[in-house]
Amino acid sequence: MKKERQILVIFPHPDDETFGVAGTIAMHVANGTPVTYACLTLGEMGRNLGNPPFATRESLPTIRKKELIKAAEAMGIDDLRMLGFRDKTLEFEDDEQMVQMMEQLIKEVNPSLLITFYPGYSVHPDHEATARAVIEAVQRLKESERSTVHCVAFSNNHEQEIGPADVINDISSFAEQKKAAMRAHLSQTEWLLKDLEPKWDSGDAEALQWIQTEQFWTYRF
């Protein structure tokens, strides 16, 4: 794995980073690369309230903020930015203001690698709004100033349209950090962990493959 100078991760919701890139983040941190994570919302409109429920609509924002901090600690992130947008409203934000905010963030952090969602292939409206703003912000930079951009894609048709992943990281040595990050987001993941943890323990090949690899598409401007 190439050693990066600085990594910037931009996602809209707490737990987006955990499902898609937690092992990769932990791997880069272990390699001595500083990681900044900018999370746009607190995911306060998330469907899950725990299983069995332990949160309410009123308490969920506070709970998810604490979960995000705990997950960042599990991955080794020491620069966590919470940008304060409201969950499920990013598609209605002013596009130009979103792009300018991303551009300022990118210029400040000056990453050699930026990780976000792939526009058009990330399903959720908040994912798409974030991806569009990030990619447009990078595109506005001089070509010599642009970082490499690795994107997470998971729509049903993404491989048919953008091809196979450009980067597949073996994160088996960091699977425990990824599991810890998932456990940190308990209000959203408890139902999933009840299904996955027995499979991990039993050596289920498909479940282990999911926890031991992460893949990315390089965005080509």
From TrEMBL:
Q: Which cofactor does this sequence's record say it needs?
A: Zn(2+)
**GO molecular function terms listed in the Swiss-Prot or TrEMBL record:** hydrolase activity, acting on carbon-nitrogen (but not peptide) bonds, in linear amides
Cite the Gene3D superfamilies for this sequence.
Answer: LmbE-like
Question: What InterPro entries does the annotation carry?
Answer: BshB2 (IPR023841), GlcNAc_PI_deacetylase-related (IPR003737), LmbE-like_dom_sf (IPR024078)
Where are the bilayer-spanning segments? Answer: none
Could you tell me which SUPFAM superfamilies the record lists for this protein?
LmbE-like (SSF102588)
Name of protein: LmbE family protein
UniProt organism field: Halalkalibacter wakoensis JCM 9140
